[in-house]
UniProtKB/TrEMBL annotation:
<dbReference type="InterPro" id="IPR036388">
    <property type="entry name" value="WH-like_DNA-bd_sf"/>
</dbReference>
<keyword id="KW-0489">Methyltransferase</keyword>
<dbReference type="InterPro" id="IPR019271">
    <property type="entry name" value="DUF2284_metal-binding"/>
</dbReference>
<dbReference type="InterPro" id="IPR012967">
    <property type="entry name" value="COMT_dimerisation"/>
</dbReference>
<dbReference type="InterPro" id="IPR016461">
    <property type="entry name" value="COMT-like"/>
</dbReference>
<dbReference type="Pfam" id="PF00891">
    <property type="entry name" value="Methyltransf_2"/>
</dbReference>
<dbReference type="InterPro" id="IPR029063">
    <property type="entry name" value="SAM-dependent_MTases_sf"/>
</dbReference>
<feature type="domain" description="O-methyltransferase dimerisation">
    <location>
        <begin position="20"/>
        <end position="95"/>
    </location>
</feature>
<dbReference type="Pfam" id="PF08100">
    <property type="entry name" value="Dimerisation"/>
</dbReference>
<dbReference type="InterPro" id="IPR036390">
    <property type="entry name" value="WH_DNA-bd_sf"/>
</dbReference>
<dbReference type="InterPro" id="IPR001077">
    <property type="entry name" value="COMT_C"/>
</dbReference>
<protein>
    <submittedName>
        <fullName>O-methyltransferase, family 2</fullName>
    </submittedName>
</protein>
<dbReference type="GO" id="GO:0032259">
    <property type="term" value="P:methylation"/>
</dbReference>
<keyword id="KW-0808">Transferase</keyword>
<dbReference type="Pfam" id="PF10050">
    <property type="entry name" value="DUF2284"/>
</dbReference>
<dbReference type="GO" id="GO:0046983">
    <property type="term" value="F:protein dimerization activity"/>
</dbReference>
<feature type="domain" description="O-methyltransferase C-terminal">
    <location>
        <begin position="165"/>
        <end position="310"/>
    </location>
</feature>
């Protein structure tokens, strides 16, 4: 899936766009590394299993797998069972000796990278603003402050999820930093307290960030080594936010077991992290963050949601639900009441099981409506006036906006032709949501209604139970809405190019 950093839009209003810009070099470095290791050449020669590739390229097998996984998320390679293969764009431009080979050109871009680091020097009259020579204590203070700003972007959504699950206290936030996530959860769960546990130097930095006593109302900051610290109470909720990825699989499993051992009967664990096997808004980020852990920690790794689910089930902590946030991370909820009241309960996973390529949650206010959309239908589509689910029969953008504002949750799905199959999947998804208790569930399709070859002359739909209006037919700006969900969507300009269909499910 293409990551398009050129989608600059003055309407951007969340931090995720800036976060993607700040890590853009991760994407390019994966491409450069793959070219330098000649991965595309070996795959083209039929060397396709992980062990054969590692042997042919003289690479470490485990680390090579993590690189290939990131490449797959970036749509450079794919794999089927144990065999890896080049994606279409890689076969065309990245295999040496092919007519269209451009690898040398892309590597030239890498050689230019060091000069881009001098951009501040060129722009500033005083030269580059050099980083200060900080000692460990100062660097730690900066780190805790930086993480606090990130947590505050994610905390409200995680806290809402905990509240909907009827989480009980007390709360233990492991690796809780400056306590912003705990504060957000406490604001939604009155009458309980939280322990924010972290290293001594982190707690010291946190108190400098929040020196006011009221900032620690109902919060006990506690320092120590989580592996050996002796806790004198049990907890109704244990939170592990961006914690397990700092450790390799063996130690991460032990730390998770330690967290589970601190639960009260009926208690719940919330794990917030980057998961390489989740799609969500930024499907590449989990695999790329895993490479960042490989480069910046001793043995850290982003563990897959499937792996952590298996660990939790081995520990008899069930049920386990995984929920993609509207940013680039996800949350796993285990234990508790077993009745996860989340708008995503199984819906995104169900969408993928039905055959959709992607399913991403977004809020209804991220679904954009505009008056020009139906004009494009009128002056650009041959079906205008011929289909009962197309303009002018469908509602205009104002009425669609009013409808969307009556919902609090939405999921955008992506699929491919044929249109009739895509439409059937949408109807199955709507039915699944309805039967799960979302009685207001409704889907918007893509393109003219495909249920019948043609609409009746009577002007009355034969199958209103199956017909659904398209997003664009209802005044929804599909391109901007897709962009808000992190989808890459551009007009098809040539035959045989990959075609994407976009559908929308709204829930309450």
């Amino acid at each position: 899936m293409k990551k398009d950093f050129t989608n600059a839009d003055p309407a951007h209003h969340d931090f995720q766009y800036l976060e993607d810009l700040s890590t853009a070099y991760w994407y390019s470095q994966v491409l450069f590394t793959a070219l330098e290791l000649e991965i595309f050449k070996f795959l083209d020669q039929g060397i396709s299993t992980l062990d054969d590739l590692a042997s042919a390229m003289d690479c470490r097998e485990a680390e090579l797998f993590r690189l290939l996984r990131a490449m797959e998320r970036m749509a450079l390679v794919g794999h089927d069972r144990d065999h890896w293969y080049n994606a279409q764009v890689a076969s065309r431009f990245l295999v040496p000796d092919r007519e269209g080979y451009m690898g040398a050109f892309f590597l030239y871009r890498k050689y230019m990278a060091s000069n881009w680091e001098k951009l501040s020097d060129k722009v500033s009259c005083q030269g580059r603003h050099k980083g200060e020579d900080l000692d460990y204590k100062q660097r730690n203070q900066r780190y805790v402050e930086a993480m606090d700003t990130l947590v505050k972007q994610k905390a409200p959504e995680i806290a809402d999820l905990a509240a909907r699950q009827d989480a009980m206290g007390p709360i233990l936030d492991v690796g809780g930093g400056s306590g912003s996530l705990a504060r957000s959860i406490l604001a939604r769960i009155p009458g309980t307290r939280a322990v924010v546990f972290d290293l001594e130097e982190v707690i010291e930095a946190a108190r400098k960030i929040y020196p006011e006593p009221q900032a620690w109302d109902r919060i006990t900051p506690l320092s120590g080594d989580f592996r050996s610290h002796e806790f004198h109470q049990k907890f109704g909720l244990v939170v592990l936010s961006n914690f397990l990825h700092a450790y390799g699989p063996d130690e991460a499993k032990q730390l998770l077991q330690r967290a589970v051992s601190l639960l009260k009967p009926g208690g719940m664990v919330i794990i917030h992290d980057y998961f390489p096997d989740r799609s969500g808004r930024s499907p590449q980020k989990g695999a790329l963050y895993d490479l960042s852990m490989m480069l910046n920690t001793f043995n850290g790794a982003c563990h897959s949601a499937a792996t952590i689910r298996a660990w939790l089930e081995q520990m008899d902590i069930t049920p386990v639900e995984t929920i993609d946030l509207t940013t680039d991370t996800a949350v796993m909820v285990a234990g508790g009441s077993g009745n996860l009241k989340s708008f995503q309960k199984n819906i995104c996973d169900t969408a993928l099981a039905l055959g959709f390529d992607r399913a991403v949650p977004l809020s209804p206010d991220q679904v954009v409506t505009a008056p020009w959309v139906r004009m494009k239908c009128r002056f650009g589509c041959a079906e205008f006036g011929n289909n009962l689910q197309c303009p002018p029969q469908t509602v205009d953008h104002d009425r669609t906006r009013a409808m969307l504002d009556a919902y609090t949750q939405a999921i955008l799905v992506q699929g491919a032709p044929p249109g009739r199959d895509f439409h059937k999947r949408l109807l199955k998804l709507e039915k699944t949501a309805f039967l799960a208790g979302f009685h207001k569930a409704f889907v918007f399709g893509a393109g003219p209604c495909p249920v019948c070859p043609s609409c009746p002359d009577t002007g009355i739909c034969r199958h209103p139970d199956q017909a659904r209006p398209a997003m664009e037919a209802s005044g929804i700006d599909v391109y901007t809405t897709a962009q808000n969900a992190g989808f890459s969507l551009t007009p098809v300009q040539e035959k045989n190019n990959y075609v994407k269909y976009i559908g929308l499910l709204v829930l309450e």
